[in-house]
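Proteins fold reproducibly. Take a sample protein:
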Amino acid sequence: VVEFFDYQCPYCKKNHPVMKKVVERDGNVRLVMKDWPVFGEASVYASQAVLAAAAIGKYQPAMEALMTLPGRLTEEDVQSAFKGAGISMKDVIASVNKNSDRIGALLDRNYQQALAFNFAGTPSFVIGKTLYPGAIDEAGLIAAIAKARKA
């Protein structure tokens, strides 16, 4: 399961616990999260910060901290969420500086992939060989995974 998402997308945030539950319950699904910051500068900032956190071994707590924040984000919201998750912004900033080319290339690649799939927004999914633009409820997600396994 590949999910293209944005940290400011309300549907992504609402769907995230469902996705986690289905993946954990199944036990044999690989989930690939693709940052696709489509909601402006705050989304780009959030994605860059999480990808920088990933480079220092803090992807999961950084991503989860932002996925639980309601509504639109500001840089201050991101920084506060990271602090609450025990992630040093000093370390994240150093990681952004060290890994900026790699982070930029990854976000560009995700953007190009989303366009190639003709996705119009977040969330969007590739499950097996089938494209699913838009949010998927739990039953739909389970059915999509089953369909991919049969193919």
